[in-house]
Amino acid sequence: MEPENVDVMVEDIVTPENLVYRKPSTLIDVEFHYCPGCGHSTVHKIFMEVVEEMGIQNDMIGVAPVGCSVFAYHYLDVDMQQAPHGRACAVATGIKRMLPDKYVFTYQGDGDLAAIGGNETLHAANRGENILVIFINNAIYGMTSGQMAPTTIEGMVTTTSPYGREVKTMGYPLKFGELIAPLPGVAYVTRQSVHTVQNVRRAKKALQRALEYQKMGLGFCLVEIVSNCPSNWKMTPIESNKYVQNVLIPFYPLGDIKVPEVKK
Amino acid sequence: MGEVRLMKGNEALAEAAIRAGVDAYFGYPITPQSEVIEYLSREATKRTGMLVLQAESEIGAINMIYGAAGCGKKAMSTSSSPGISLMQEGLSYIASAELPCLVANINRGGPGLGTIQPAQGDYFQAVKGGGHGDYRLLVLAPYNVQEMADFVKLGFELAFKYRNPVMILADGALGQMMEKVELPPQEPRVHIEYPWATTGKPKDGPRRVITSLHIEPEKMEEINLRLQAKYKKMEEEEVRYQAKNLEDAEYIFTAFGLVSRIALKAMDLGRQKGYKIGWIRPITLFPFPKKIFAEVSEKVKGILDVEMNSGQMVEDVKLAVCGNTRVEFYGRMGGVIPTPDEILAYFEKMFIKGE
Questions:
Q1: Residue B220 belongs to some domain of the structure
Q2: What is the pLDDT of residues B96-122, one digit of tens each?
Q3: Are B59 and B161 in a shared domain?
Q4: pLDDT reported for residue A10
Q5: Are A96 and A60 in contact (CB under 8 A)?
Q6: Residue B116: what pLDDT?
């Protein structure tokens, strides 16, 4: 359908009374390098909305290790350190122990957090490091173009499991949240997604809760976000969101895995 | 005179770290240097509030240093050869991100798990970079327990001056042996706000990003050129060495660390027999004291380099003398410490009887 009045300029529409969507001030106003439809952009935005709403932009240090989101510091307008592959939780430990009053977070993919960085993540969790770990689980290595991840589900095709992940030889997909949840140092483990508007809102709420828990000094918080990878899954963004819903979420069920008892 | 104590090298290093106002130590036990983390665990936190954290691995430890150093804090670790190998990834990142830190390698015999006895087989690893990419550590080689203590403060001064990792390259004997040491006075731990440090985005300025990632080749080359300019400046300004009897020397004994003391004794024994031997001990292994070797190479008949390895520093000696004089090497490996007598005997075999 053609617009009725083609003379209406975009400036006439973008007025305060019409504003229903905006980037938070804590997100740098540049184009994302992420592929169209990728969940990273959504998570960046809602996380920075939380940071803006909580007013903690100047009290925060983030860690971006290797993966698609290594360039998170191009977008998140907070102090950032880029970490070696898998070492984000160790780097974050160094930061948080030096600056315990600051909010410290890592932003890691599945290969980074659960494969090469499994030891660093596990031990930071077990020490109860008072940090937030944002864990983007799209079941594949994105940055290196689609290899098998520790979270790749059984039968899933990747460039290094071209006939589908065979658990007998390639091992089983790893549920890292469930793995660390029983540790006493771990305060909060939740699994969310950003493939629907409703899920985006829930994920945002989870990120906010995790930062509030950090302020209370409760310990290690893991917010896992089951996300998509349209490029390496070789799907359209819409198809990839359906795959999240129909294939990944049944294996990685959403919801809180561990919630701290907070005294009111 | 400051407080004097009889201490192991490892303990002296630990005590000096407390007194230098170091903010954080991250480490993992490994023989022959576990006394450092044990001593600090007993003493440091209660005295200065210094953080002492036993990491899950040396990989964890060096990355905790990365995080702490990135906040502008004085952070350090110590380890021994296999553990230092695990730190190489982190050191490469720290060098590239231009963060200051101090790491001591109490070198043991290798390769592999090797032995827990003293060795100098990690010279190449320490001096030539160690990890991936074109970078250098500034490397200090103590030769007694006093310098095990003194080089902590010096190491941090250099690390912050150049925003570069500094390594103390010692060996298992220096770590374990006890000597008299005069301890420096206690300095307070102070927080300095560095413009590059990530301590929370300033309200009135841009965010700080600490990274070693530069995808554009021109930008990455620019970073490399900046690093190389820094290393060149170190070569111009930070060379340290000690020398004896160069005035009349016809031969030079050279060695670093503990072995330099043995070589010094061998020089004395040789002088008693009438050989005009001088002695050069590089204190900075990078930057290497090329100039003094180039100078003496014009007038001596030969240089004997002694190391507890298969011949590593000798390559830098040869580069420095550039064929001007004969350079011979004597080494022991696997934790065997050479004696003054065998050094002198080798010298006589190569330089005197051969003449």
A1: no
A2: 999 999 999 999 999 999 999 999 999
A3: yes
A4: 79
A5: no
A6: 96
With beta carbons under 8 A apart, name residues in chain B contacting A95. Answer: 67-68, 70-71, 198
> Above 70 in pLDDT, residue A157?
yes
- Residue B41 sits in the same domain as residue B187: yes
Which residue of A lies nearest to B201 if distances are taken between CA atoms?
A58
**What percent of chain B is predicted at pLDDT more than 70?**
99
Count of structural domains within chain B:
2
Write the DSSP symbol of residue B158. Answer: H
The percent of residues above 90 in pLDDT, for chain B, comes to: 99
A-B interface: how many C-beta pairs under 8 angstroms? 131
Residue of chain A with shortest Cα separation from B89:
A84
Q: What is the CATH number of the domain that holds B67?
A: 3.40.50.970
Claim to verify: residue B259 and residue B197 sit in the same structural domain: no
Residues of B whose CB is below 8 A from A58? 200-203
Pick from A57, A94, A99: which is nearest to B63 by CB? Answer: A94
Residue B218 falls inside a structural domain = no
Instruction: Flag if B201 and A123 touch (Cβ within 8 Å).
Output: no
Distance in Å from the first CA to the final CA of chain B = 49
Q: How confident is the model at residue A240 (pLDDT cuts 50, 70, 90)?
A: very high
Place of tokens 């300004």: B237
pTM comes to 0.96
Number of domains composing chain A: 1
* Gap between the Cα atoms of B262 and B281, Å rounded: 11
- With CA atoms as reference, the chain B residue closest to A123 would be B56
Same domain for B123 and B107, yes or no, is yes
- A-chain residue closest to B92, CA distance: A84
The minimum CA-CA distance between A2 and chain B, rounded to whole Å, is 43
Confidence bin at A264 (pLDDT 50/70/90):
low
Looking at CA atoms only, how far is residue B51 from chain A in angstroms? Answer: 8
A77/B207 Cβ within 8 A: yes
Taking residues A180-208, report their average pLDDT: 98
Dump the DSSP string for A112-154: IIIIITHHHHHHHHHHT---EEEEEE-SEETTTTSEE-TTPPT
Same domain assignment for residues B282 and B189: no
Q: Is the peptide bond preceding residue B287 cis, with omega within 30 degrees of 0?
A: yes
Does residue B131 fall inside a structural domain? yes
Q: Which domain holds residue B166?
A: 4-201+225-237
Query: What is the ipTM, given to two decimal places?
Result: 0.97
Taking an 8 Å cut-off on Cβ atoms, the answer to whether B207 and A61 are in contact is no
Q: Are strands A220-226 and A132-137 parallel, antiparallel or unpaired?
A: parallel
Residue of B nearest to A99 (CA): B199
Phi-psi region of B254 (alpha: psi -120 to 50; beta: other; left: phi over 0): beta
pLDDT computed for residue A1 by the predictor: 53
Please check the confidence at residue B299 and state whether its pLDDT lies above 60.
yes
pLDDT in tens, A130-140: 999 999 999 99
**Chosen domain end from B237, B265, B293:** B237
DSSP state of A27: B
User: Does one domain contain both B145 and B52?
Assistant: yes
Distance CA B166, CA A90 (A): 20
User: Which residues of chain A lie closer than 8 angstroms to B90, CB-CB?
Assistant: 84, 87
Q: Are strands B75-79 and B101-107 parallel, antiparallel or unpaired?
A: parallel
- Does the distance separating the beta carbons of A84 and B93 come in below 8 Å? yes
Question: Is residue A6 a part of any domain in this protein?
Answer: no
* Residue ending a domain, choose from B237, B263, B290: B237
pLDDT computed for residue A16 by the predictor:
84
- Domain-located, residue B37: yes
Interface touch A63/B67, C-beta < 8 Å:
yes
Q: pLDDT digit string (tens) for B42-69?
A: 999 999 999 999 999 999 999 999 999 9
CATH of the domain at A55: 3.40.50.970
**Bridge partner list, A169:** none
